[in-house]
Amino acid sequence: MRRLALPLALLLLASLPALAAETKPQKAPSPAQQAQHEKMRQCSASAKEKALHGDPRKVFMKECLSKRAAG
Prior knowledge:
mainly alpha, 3 helices, 71 residues, single chain
C-alpha cells in the first residue's frame, strides 16, 4: 500500500495546476489586444507566403508590425 501512496500523491499534485486553470474564468481580450492579434496574424500570414524562416522572418515581422502600428 505504501508503494502506491507516493505515486498517487505525486499524480494528484501534478494535476492540481490543471484543475485550477480549468476553474478560472476567461477574460475577453481588450480591443487593443484584439487589434494586436490581428496585426500579428496578418504579418505572420505574409511571412508564410514569402516562406520566411529564422532571422529573416524575425526582421520581417518586426518591420511589418511597426508599419502597421504607425499606420
